Amino acid sequence: MIKILLADDEDYIRQGIRYTIPWNAHDMEIVVEASNGMEALELAIKLRPDIILADIQMPLLNGLELTDKLGTLLPDTRIIILTAYGNTENLTHAIDVKVSAFLLKNADSEKILKTVTKVKLELEQQLERQKKTENLRGIFDDNRHLIKATLMTRFLLNQVSYTHFIDKAHPLAISTDAGSYTMLLIKCSCSDEKLAVGQFIQYFHKYQPFVFFVTDQLAVVILETTLQSLTDEKLDELLPSLLPLTFGNSIAVMRDIESYEEFPMCFSLLSHILDHCFWNTEMPYTVISPQDTIAINNGSVPTGHLVESRLLTAVLSRSAGKIKQNLNEYYEHMKQNHVSRQLFLDSVERVLLLIHAASEAAFNLEQAFSTLADLETPEEIIELIKSLALPDAPPASHSQITAGLEYISLHYNEDIHLEDVARVSYLSAGYLSRIFKSETGYSFKEYLHMIRIKKAQELLCSTGLKYYEIAEKVGYRNYKYFSSYFSKVSGCSAKEYQIRNMEKR
Quick check: 303 and 294 in contact, CB under 8 A? Predict the structure, then answer.
């Protein structure tokens, strides 16, 4: 319904226009009347009508003066000037203040309705254009992050030049004029990219973060560090929040980057570092600078085929002692050559394939490969090989698995590890890690956090405990760990979860 304000100092004119024309039948309504220009101005600002019918001669403020003022205050409002004369006096001024139309006061109802309807149609067409523009702008805004991330990814991968990137970056409001940047590459365990991006933006909010994924589970975090540096101390403070979203110790950091022009080189170096840092299991993250020169092995493993061959020979011998000895040699060889994680996994897959083909072990090769991809440390991978290579490993019984799950349900609030569950299940840690996901649908770590968070959800809904008290009760000694895992498992914060469930009751 189009809203109309009628302004004229003569009451009979207002009444005639109001009551002789079927406004409602044409989706229009006179919502208010004014007897002088100043009153019309005040009512217009308050009610924001779509169309104003205003007498050209009114006390305090005439029609053209009213139009002039509303042109700034209400630029989308259309104004039709009523005049008692056949000529359009002050026509030049009328053009300047953008009057939409003129009407003679003595015009018949049909003429008045026709003129107002024409202005109404113009207004509706304008509103439709604005709506389309706003929709397009909304679509652009909704996809702005994706557009920026796509451009940045192509730039980091050297698919576009620096000049091309800068030309496209400025219209997208990508700030490239900071004096110092820090780039982080984080391999994520969280499959929900939207959640991970939101969490990283929250944790690094002091540094104007730009966060996006270049591949599945590989996040890039770009920080402006001109005013404050991301020191080791600050990284250590953030770690409890970051690690629940991170795959193992896969965090690589480069500080003191002076220009976006350096980004592709920095990204390339960080990618190499990320693929090698899993050997440094004692380090939760790896920090380098653009000036660092690091020797990296991305080719074949020197004499790798020999240690693989000796390990296979030991498996065929069915000697537990030889298998363990050669497996240790295989591990040390890979570690000393500091091979990349992917190169190590490729080698392990060959080893598992040979074990599966050459031994009598009845295991699901596809399931073994799936388990291998989920393991975060070299030690866990070696335990997996051991569980498949050692002869006469009896299959786990239902009671053994049940005993392990019962142990978790009773001790979830303690500092428990896979080895603890393996011990009460009378299984090796490697064998348990291999079968745990097939039995539960989760890795051991995922299952433990799921149990803890489900218990926390129950406490949130049934007690008045504070959040940090609940965190301690379910096994998190650090509240930041609890907060991050709660968001990861529940898809929302503990506070949001509590509010939602209170509303349901």
Answer: no
Residue whose structure tokens are 């391999």: 187
Contact 408, 421 (CB under 8 A): yes
Instruction: Based on the fold, state whether residues 368 and 385 are members of the same structural domain.
Output: yes
Regions of the chain short of the pLDDT cut 50: 88, 92, 297
Q: What is the extent of the structural domain holding 340?
A: 304-389
Q: Is residue 169 part of a domain?
A: no
Q: What is the pTM of this model?
A: 0.64
Res 48: pLDDT: 92
Residue 250 CB contacts under 8 Å (≥ 6 apart), including other chains: 186, 187, 274, 277, 278
First-last CA distance in the chain: 40
Q: What is the DSSP letter of 1?
A: -
Q: Is residue 425 included in any domain, yes or no?
A: yes
Residues forming beta bridges with residue 343, ordered by sequence position: none
Q: Which residues pair with 399 in a beta bridge?
A: none
Burial profile 123-152: b = 16 or more Cβ within 10 angstroms, e = fewer: beeeeeeeeeeeeeeeeeeeeeeeebbebb
Q: What is the 3-state secondary structure (H, E, C) of 398-412?
A: HHHHHHHHHHHHHHC
pLDDT (tens digit per residue) in 148-202? 999 999 999 999 999 999 999 888 888 888 889 999 999 998 778 888 898 899 9
User: If you write DSSP's letter for every residue of 45-98 in order, what string do you get?
Assistant: HHH--SEEEEESS-SSS-HHHHHHHHHHH-TT-EEEEEESSSS-TTHHHHHHTT
Q: What digits encode the pLDDT tens for the residues 436-462?
A: 877 888 888 889 999 999 999 999 988
Q: Does the residue 144 lie in any domain?
A: no
